[in-house]
Amino acid sequence: MEHFRICPVSSYYQRILLPVSYSLVFLLGLSLNGALLWCVCCGTRRWSSTAIYMSNLAMADLLYVLAMPPLIIANAMDGLWPFGNVLCKCVRFFFFVNLHCSMMFLTCISVHRFLGVCFPIAAVRHRTKRVALFASGTVWVLAAAEIFPTLVFAHTGVINNVTVCFEMTNPEHFKVYFPYGLFLAVVGFLVPFLVVVTCYCSMMRALYCRAADRISNCRAACMRNKSLYTLLAVCLVFVVCFVPYHVARTVYLFVRVYMPEDCALVNTAMISFKAWKPVVSLNCCANPLLYFFGSGRHREKVRAWLWRRKKRVQPSVCLVDVGSANRSGG
């Protein structure tokens, strides 16, 4: 096992911030994405391209949160990694594969919606189940290929007499890792980000211009505004969750490679990078809410399910009240 001595870094925040936030994301992400996957798989009789993308997105987010428990334990133990080298590589690999899969499936969904709104005629040919299945399979293969070098770079090591699992690579190999880190930032994040923002901005513009010519009553105006607000919310969540994290990660890599002697700067870059990690993880909790419960059809399903439960509960409550009244009157 390799031994390294590097700049002393502040880790007090890490023992509280990351375990607490990761535990919250784990619980919410597991329940929300599990419910979404169950509803899509069990409640869909005829699979559409949207259902295919949604089920794959939920699966990616679900696998993402399932990789969190070892990280929660390690961060709670102040970075100590007690699980061995093989699990270190596997956790880092699955963590990043499913993070990139999530971004790519969000990109697929944005393109899918963009075609339906801006090019409805051409969408008939391109928004098919066959295309969705091919795109979904391609996303899993590309994400695995992108993150495959992580199995080489990520491993355990000893820093200041503490066994740790390197998230990227050990300090001596940062210069070798740096081009790969930039590749992930550009191909794995920047390209999907530009596609998502372009698609949603184009959809908002098309909806606004199209509705401006046809709106003749308040109801139509409300529907238009609701659609615009939904698109804006999805776009903002993508930006807030992914942009700061990837910017902070790239800056941290740059500082580690070109200014490793400036310990104050290394600490600042590391704290910024670590602080944004919980935010990028929250995306897997926001996806079910935005893409499932934000749909009018699915809202109606949830409302109907709650109404059925209410009707089942009310008779039992009434029976209890009647029985109690009889007993008190007897």
Q: What does this protein structure show overall?
A:
Helices cover 80% and strands 3% of the residues. With 330 residues, the protein is mostly helical. Strand 2 and strand 3 (162-165) form a beta hairpin. Mean pLDDT is 81; it is low at 315-330.
CATH class assignment? Mainly Alpha
What proportion of the residues form beta strands (DSSP E)?
under 5%
The end-to-end span amounts to: 79 Å
For the sheet with most strands, the description reads: 3 strands, mixed
- The amount of helix comes to over 70%
Shape, please?
elongated
CATH architecture, by name, is Up-down Bundle
> Superfamily at the CATH H level?
Rhodopsin 7-helix transmembrane proteins
Number of domains: 1
Give the count of helical stretches: 11
Whole-number average pLDDT? 81
Tally of extended strands?
3
Q: What is the alpha-carbon Rg in Å?
A: 24 Å
Identify the strand order in the major beta sheet: 1-2-3
Order of helices and strands: EHHHHHHHEEHHHH
Name the descriptors.
Rhopdopsin 7-helix transmembrane proteins; 330 residues; mainly alpha; elongated; 80% helix; 3-stranded mixed beta sheet
